[in-house]
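Course assignment 3, question 2. Fill in each field.
Student: A.L.
Task: Predict the tertiary structure for the chain below.
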Amino acid sequence: MKLILATMMIVLAGTAMAEEARKPLFTGQLGAAPVQVVYEYLGNRLTNELGIGEYQRLAIQQTSAGPENFKKVNIELQMQGLMDDSVRTQRFQLGLSFDDATSVWLIDSAKQDWQCRRGNSKGWTQKPCK
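Answer field:
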């Protein structure tokens, strides 16, 4: 009995540590929609200090995790028609979840990649274009 209880305590402690280690990348403000949270998180990566973005088109797509799961969403944001002569498009892919305890959206994951003008222009690369 003591061995089972000790094992359960170790498992629970490990679970607590895993939960504690899983910190969000960014926490949104109360009442902010997922797109607002992403825009705030990306901040100066999208615009300069005057709020001007140097791209022709900003495409934002939000999808939910499932037909009845609206508390987990993925957002893809693409800056297309950049002034940079080496980069065709810059893309951010973010995973968000709604935290019931605090009633705010959390950014759990973020990925950035590029589509270059030269080389493999149709594919995406994790490395900035040259």
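Instructor remarks: The chain has one domain: 25-116. The first helix runs from residue 2 to 21.
Grade: pending
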